[in-house]
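Researcher: Next entry: AraC family transcriptional regulator (Dokdonia sinensis).
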Amino acid sequence: MKKAIIAIVLILVLGILGYLFVYPYNYQVNFEAKTNPGTLNQSIKSWNSSLENGEIIAQDGWEHLEQKIVQGDSTYIYTWDITPINDSLSKVKVRIDDKENDLPLKLAVPFKKTDFEIRTKATVKEFFDLMNSHLDEIRVTIDGKSITPATYVAYVPLKGLQIEKARGMMQYYSLLTNRMIKYDVELNGPPFVEVTEWNTKTDSIHYNFCFPIKYAKDLPEDPIIKYKRITSKEAIKATYNGNYITSDRAWYALLQYAEDNNLEVEKTPLESFFNNPNMGGDELNWRADIYMPLKAKE
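Model: Predicted structure:
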């Protein structure tokens, strides 16, 4: 009996010591999100950029982020771990730590609701509500295997962050339109973006903003506009509805679909746009066809 009591006491003591001095965080919030890890990753970063004192300090793939948030005279570390459940549902664990007040918080949290707990729960809820509002404003439908468009194009090469892509399109939309009219070049379909390089660590891209045109031997030379032929490729396709600023949400949905179906893809998406954002209107009625090319079979 004495040995059993001693063993129980040792277990309790070790458990308390482990909680106080080894347990790596002060509080944890769990929730599910009706989207994929890539979209969650981008949503966290977008929300972070809106904070006055938020900073992403580490990232491991799309499924692990570390964020520093300064609130008042306290500095909190938010560790986000995202686990996909299926192609449209993810489980999220948010671990929050205040290194400066680690021991007092661990002593207080099990016994009373602290200001730290109230503040961190409110902060995560703020993100949760904004994320759901964003998901209500977009729609991504996976269409399956397809073929990318083949056409001759007039294009402008651009580069920047993913979130700046729509700004680049709007900047050059009128220029391309006016030049094609000036040069009497016949258009041959909706404009599209051809991503040629995607750095998933920095969320930056190199891309061509393209206007499909009818090929002609005497296409005029221009200091800004280039010409080339684009050939078709086997791909997986999604239909995106929403503001074109966040059309890359379909990229992540296609990558998740590829992973779930054991498909090898090239991370060089192509987006074909059927609405002019300058004309406004209900953004859920804006449509873009998004393609993720499959790797060529050897």
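Model: Note for the record: The two ends are 70 Å apart (CA to CA).
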